[in-house]
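Thread: sanity check for a docking pose with flavin mononucleotide

Original post by kr_44:
Hi all, I'm comparing my docking run against an independent structure prediction. Below are the sequence and the ligand SMILES. Could someone generate the full complex and paste the structure tokens? I mainly care about where the ligand ends up relative to the chain.
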Amino acid sequence: MTQRLPFLDRLAVPAIAAPMLRVSGIELVSAACRAGVVGAFPTANAESLEAFAGWMARLNDEAAAAREAGTAHAPWCPNLIMRRDPARVRAEVELIVRHRAELVITSVGSPAAVIPALHDGGCLVLADVASVHHAERAIEAGADGLVLLTAGAGGHTGWANPFAFVRAVRAFFDGPLVLAGGLPDGVALRAATVLGCDLGSMGTRFIATEQSLASAPYKKMLAASSLDDVMTTRAFTGLPANFLRPSVVNAGLDPGGTRRDGVGAGGAPALRRRFRGRRDPALGRPVERRALGRRGGRAGHGRAGGARAARGIPRVCIGLGFSLKGASETPDGLRGPRPEARRGVSLAPDFLQ
Ligand SMILES: Cc1cc2nc3c(=O)[nH]c(=O)nc-3n(C[C@H](O)[C@H](O)[C@H](O)COP(=O)(O)O)c2cc1C
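Reply from moderator J.T.:
Ran it for you. Here is the predicted complex with flavin mononucleotide included:
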């Protein structure tokens, strides 16, 4: 008998609108919660602590109004990126507790430092993990549940097969599990629950929505793209990530090669050689060396999905990555390679803990 999440009966579908940097703004989160889907957002999407507090206050007001009207309202869910300035993370945790968040998703780093304060505030913690080892460590640290990041996820991706990963974790953990990566629709969501998950976390599916912060041209590109337009590479951030091939081309860069599942025969080093010194039209300045990394490693083989306009409605959108602009603009270091990456050390095995 698995432990259940306390808010499942308030959801219209067992889904989280996944946290996405520069995509999940307040309008998307609000619309998701009102539609009965958990609305998650990286705290960094609010431009300041004041704005972050304002978002949470608005979401609480909307939840109260829904309660009064007798309608359901799904929880909102901040996403804490752990590998950042600890003082900033602490300040965000304080605000999260003050605004009585029901749950938080932690990613890119161990949740250990924030779990005591969040638990004291009555907030559940779901830790984003990409390996069995990190799942075990997150549980040891006190996480209430896990988001299993698997192959095909948009943005920084996992690599494990979802069937194998969910079953491997279910063998030792009966708490809440969320599957993330390549969930395009309700059928896939249902499959995730049959597999043993409580929820599915869907990201790319929400990028081309009216409420998302993605630019109109990017939404259009995504809706017109297919599975075969996805490339997986470490060349941009040092971590394996899924990108839309046309977004790379639009930025004036050459993805190279003919392979559909990577960056081409030359791999990431060839990609960097091609890009070095070129101007990034999205940013109007030369492509940054740090954005390309010094040694990107070989290209991955993500089973990422795609989107097509079907009867004018964007259909499946699995695993389509963020724009190159997002990848190379890293004022907060979230998307940039860490120093180890600049030294050419692969971060893949440990980037989630
Ligand atoms: C554009 C983009 C930005 C993302 N930013 C974040 C982030 O800031 N924090 C995080 O934990 N996950 C982030 N993710 C991962 C999503 O939360 C989620 O795991 C992923 O989108 C699921 O795969 P899917 O896109 O195939 O549905 C991002 C994904 C995308 C596509």
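Residues 258-268, 279-353 have pLDDT under 50 and may be disordered. Hope that helps with the comparison, let us know if your pose agrees.
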